[in-house]
Amino acid sequence: MKIGELARRTACRVETIRFYEKKGMLPPPPRSTGNYRLYGKMHVERLLFIRRCRSLDMTLDEIRRLLQIRDTPQDDCSAVSAFLDGHIRQIGVRIAELQQLRNQLDSLRQLCSGAQTVAQCGILQELDSSGFASD
Q1: With contact defined as beta carbons under 8 Å apart, do 14 and 3 qualify?
Q2: Interacting residues of 43 by C-beta distance below 8 A, sequence separation 6+
Q3: Which of 36, 43, 44, 75 could form a disulfide with 32 if both were Cys (CB 3.0 to 4.6 A apart)?
Q4: Are 39 and 76 in contact (CB under 8 A)?
Q5: What NCBIfam families is this protein classified in (predicted)?
Q6: pTM for the complete prediction?
């Protein structure tokens, strides 16, 4: 199939498919006599795998590592479990950071009732001052 068909089957933009090829995550397909890229079932499966990993918020480096592991099906899968444990830990850290950010925003929001002029806005005053801690 040509790249447009691959894009339709995987709900992926053509530019994204080319990007994954350039990054070495999707192997370059053979070319037709007319120099068209000809993709096969393996490309569909690999691209769907990449897209699923992206939907789980994995970085390109993380996906590349999983693809390397996936490409050695005879190896022990404990590396996959260890990888996922690390990703779960990273997500936990990000959740804690986002919660802290929300708490800061909630505190900031309490500084203004909205019934004042912009010049009297406690939020803007706090953001203008160095008093609001970012950590």
Answers
A1: yes
A2: 6, 26, 27, 29
A3: 36
A4: no
A5: CadR-PbrR (TIGR02047)
A6: 0.77
pLDDT digit string (tens) for the chain, length 135 residues: 999 999 999 999 999 999 999 999 999 999 988 988 899 999 999 999 999 999 999 999 999 999 999 999 999 999 999 999 999 999 999 999 999 999 999 999 998 877 888 888 889 988 988 655 555
Cβ atoms of 44 and 81 within 8 Å: the answer is no
Q: Look at the block and give the residue holding tokens 């992926």.
A: 12
For residue 51, the one-letter residue type is R
